[in-house]
Amino acid sequence: MTISTQALLKKYEDIIKEEVNVKHVEELDDSLKIQKTFKPIGSQLSAKFGKDTGKIIQYGKQGNIKDAGDGKMIIFDNDGNEWMLESGEYEIAYEGLEGNTTAVDQNIIAKLDLELTPALQREWVAREISRFLNQMRKDADYSVDTKVVMLYSTTDENLANIVKEFKDFFKHEALISDIQSTDKPEGEIVALFTSNESTINFALKK
Predict the structure, then answer these.
(1) What is the domain partition of the chain in residue ranges?
(2) Helical (H) or strand (E) element with 176
(3) 12 in helix, strand or coil?
(4) Beta pairing, strands 198-205 & 189-195
(5) What sections of the chain are H helices per DSSP?
(6) pLDDT one-digit tens code per residue, 105-135
(7) Yes or no: domain 118-205 corresponds to CATH 3.30.2320
(8) Which of 40 and 23 is assigned the larger pLDDT?
(9) Left, alpha or beta for 80 (phi > 0: left; psi -120 to 50: alpha)?
(10) N or C: which end of the chain has fewer CB within 10 A?
(11) Quick check: pTM over 0.70?
């Protein structure tokens, strides 16, 4: 039974997201114009096919190709003649790949959308804050299962909104039992987090 690409993406979606660090996985639409080009390797074919080598190269470039599986390709002419090529006797090239955002591996084409949306920017800052809080925990010598209260103070509206938006994320990732806004954060450890010249003062306490 052949499994469709869509089924494979659905089955391994969570693994792909985690390994590649992406938010969404979906099939490419027809807007990506990529031309698949078949290139027989003449030096590999001449010893095997002799005088037919020229025909193989000609019909291969014309697109008279059938996939025979296991890395093999069949070249055919208009008279019913066929030539079987092994994997090392041809190359597959792709035209229309866009810079570093598109990659090809055999018959799989993958494209990354690298647009940094406002939502992704907020999430990136939230992950930086999470790492910062965990470093604070380490510096304060808290045990790995100790839950602590997080206090914070900032005059930057964007950072304040990020703390509110991702409060559940911080509680889970940094073992925070409660999050409190205060004019003067105090605790066992106090540290200043900076993001694009904006700052937020954090304190952790048991």
Answers:
(1) 5-111, 118-205
(2) strand 176-181
(3) coil
(4) antiparallel
(5) 5-11, 13-20, 42-49, 53-62, 118-139, 157-165, 167-173
(6) 555 666 666 677 888 899 999 999 999 999 9
(7) yes
(8) 40
(9) left
(10) N
(11) no
